[in-house]
């Protein structure tokens, strides 16, 4: 018998970790950039990649968001999560996006848990058989045998209806429940609402406009298979602090100890991320002030040199700006007007509502701020600042001091020659503000 042999070439099998895929990432201004990444890439890897590409300071607050426009919701993609698994849950005909932006509140609850969990919303479940000190609140979340009980009133949209109704909700390790009889927590009165084994918690955008919610502080529980707004389990709080408490507790319940590992990992000495380039890892601080250049090995000295370079640049900028125009009293005001325009905390023509939305997106914690032009008075500026999860606005008045234009937040008692000096002062001193300026709202160009 004769057989005709034919050689068959099998396709090479590429290890999963070496496969590549192109994804698109957006910034605050809806500009996007396509990048090729490994298929096993995590959200933290993506953030590190864009931090390096944009020469940002990696303060561990850069965050990747999943934004589902067709549902009007978004959520934090946790640092350890697989980005490809998130993308696999998107429908082909939906406008879903990845956003890269700051979120200062991402891990703030590990530093200041009492700011996130008000006393009236937290109690210890009967599983603990005791009382836990508030300083150990987060630890009880991370232990599998214990769990603080989060409780309080929330508005819920009834299934298949557009109407909203207020219920008393209870969050336990076994899931989220609501009471059908006032504030009763008896098992016969608690109705199951959702668990978090296959669900994620999302912030609802424009809750009043899109979903008819009674307030703008909406959030929802969404399963990975959910593709329609009808399938969302929509909730609504009465204020930002209440919403933040519920969302933070649900994140802790779902991811537990992994969130704490994400929090402490950047602060530990670990091997370089696969997204970091060789050239970036080899960067060193250099001193070129002498006849011969030298490497600055002392971190404190490197920091002081960097600060001095910044101050030197600022002095040169002021001198360069003041060199234009006629030698009159107006000459001194030129740098005051222009020098702040390049600062990352200045957002020019931003409305009050847009400022509040931007601060909320980047983390409603104490000290998040931005400066902007005043919409009501074009000659003045406004400092928008978050304190106690509420956003307050302070007018910065220009004052004519013997022909020199200066700026003040307190009717001229404390005076500054430019807005940079004002910001630097209130970063170190609270003054008339409810808290110091800690984190500026940043926008980047991808």
Automatic annotation (TrEMBL):
Gene3D superfamilies: Phosphatidylinositol 3-kinase Catalytic Subunit, Chain A, domain 1, Pleckstrin-homology domain (PH domain)/Phosphotyrosine-binding domain (PTB), SH2 domain. CDD domains: PH_APBB1IP. Residues 19-105 form the Ras-associating domain. GO terms for cellular component: cytoplasm; plasma membrane. InterPro entries: BPS-dom (IPR015042), GRB/APBB1IP (IPR039664), PH-like_dom_sf (IPR011993), PH_APBB1IP (IPR039665), PH_domain (IPR001849), RA_dom (IPR000159), SH2 (IPR000980), SH2_dom_sf (IPR036860). GO terms for biological process: insulin receptor signaling pathway; negative regulation of insulin receptor signaling pathway. The gene is grb14. This is Growth factor receptor-bound protein 14 isoform X3. Residues 345-441 form the SH2 domain. It holds the Pfam family BPS. It is found in: Cytoplasm. Belongs to the GRB7/10/14 family. It comes from Parambassis ranga. The lineage of its organism: Eukaryota, Metazoa, Chordata, Craniata, Vertebrata. The keyword Transferase does not apply. It comes from the Eukaryota. Residues 147-255 form the PH domain. Keywords: Cytoplasm, Phosphoprotein, Receptor, SH2 domain.
